[in-house]
Design a protein that fits this description.
Blueprint (H helix, E strand, L loop, with lengths): L7 H8 L22 H10 L40 H15 L18 E2 L4 H4 L18 E6 L5 H8 L18 E2 L8 E12 L5 E12 L11 E6 L6 H5 L3 H5 L15 E3 L6 E3 L11 H13 L40 H10 L12 H12 L10 E2 L13 E2 L7 E3 L17 E3 L9 H5 L13 H6 L6 H9 L2 H13 L1
Antiparallel strand pairs: 1-3, 2-6, 4-5, 7-8, 9-10, 11-12
Length: 506
Amino acid sequence: MHVRFNSPMVATMLAASVLLTVSPAPLIARAGDGGFSAEDKARVEAVTRAASDFSRAEMHEALSGGAGTWRGEADAKAFSNPNSTLDDTGRQNFALGFAIFRKMWAQAPSSTHASDGLGPLFNARSCQSCHVNDGRGHAPDDGKASQSFLLRLARPAITDAEQKQIADLTLLNWPDPTYGHQLQEKAVTGLPGEGTPVVTYSETPVTLAGGETVMLRAPHYRVDNLAYGELDPKTTLSPRIAQSLIGMGLIEAIPEDQILAHAQPHSDGIHGKANFVRDPVTGRRMLGRFGWKAQNATVREQAASALSNDIGISSPDAPDPYGDCTAAQTACRRQPTGVQLNLGNTEAPDPVLPLLAAYTSHLAVPQRRDVEDPQVLAGKALFYRAGCADCHVPKYVTGRDAANASLAFQLIWPYGDFLLHDMGPGLADGQQVGLASGSEWRTAPLWGIGLTKTVNGREAYLHDGRARTLQEAILWHGGEGEVARDAYAAMDRNDRQKLLRFLESL
């Protein structure tokens, strides 16, 4: 059942959260092999081997998220349930983290001191505003804004010295000198928001085998009502929609060796690339796993970045209380902050960040549907045959040494390799993010993708939400995805429907 947290007891617990001791997941310098014994490794290799028999479902295939899979109703709350392997303490931290996730932050100073510190510039007042029902966002359309869509701002390295900083993992890229890393549409009272993103579309017909025509819409971006002058000419605009949050802790628990094993050249030109980053607290080199360009290594880092850039809330891992306000935005940096030194030197002092990470780490993956359906099995065979599984790698086993014991040694089915792939000029945004080029994107996991409309009321796929259907998303694949795309386009209509039926079962 979906966990509801509206009781007086939970409200009291949240209000007193600064008194709780919640330990963040430890940053353990692991070897990257999951802490597996030789016997474990043999079992893992056998169970994660690519499927070859498509006459029936594989063992445990319906349990996408391992033992903690959500097995309840596949309804609008299907992404919002706790991993069932959590103990009582874990469930309590999940509950407190959920309350923080939906908290509406307020402009400082406010009467609710625990919620002070919004902005001064921001895109949303709560995490849940973007990740509605813990699902994915969509782009603005029909002249209406979308709170789950934003524009990242950056320029790539230009000089040799700047290239060295990227190679050394010192920086990911360079923000716009005036507007910073992200365009914030909203601001606290007395300040203007930075500008308004505008999206327009042009449509192009694509003809598939058998004569079926599909219209692909190509987005075009601009910013109106810039409040602080012009953007730097070298600044690129990278549109992003919010991603689904299910299974994030499981992804973090996949041993690094299992992911890097897929960074090998394939015969059809596919070559996954890792985006390594540095932990913002320890400085340790880590494998990027989260974000559209794999720019974050841990769930905690992802949460701290979102608090800072999207809401303007500082935390121990991102301590600037002015968020993305740049030095050029002097009025912004004169605003009051929500820092209360009796609680800590940030607006979200411990244990707020570890509680938020505990929530997003333990959102259960829903159980798959219809895994034994003949149409689904036929679609799965076509998925493999087209080469889709080369990047959307079906399964992994999480490490025995996972920081969260509740997520350890689980067979999971995310259907992603979490590596960077060049997706061609059609999807390129021209924005470098660490080791990711302007045409490279992380292979996002497909688990739960068949419930997109159920959870969010509409469909929107790819990094900018341009694709309105799974078929459109497939047809936008270029670069390393071109072979699989062309294989799909060449199938007869019945086979295409089978492959889509398989995706809808995930």
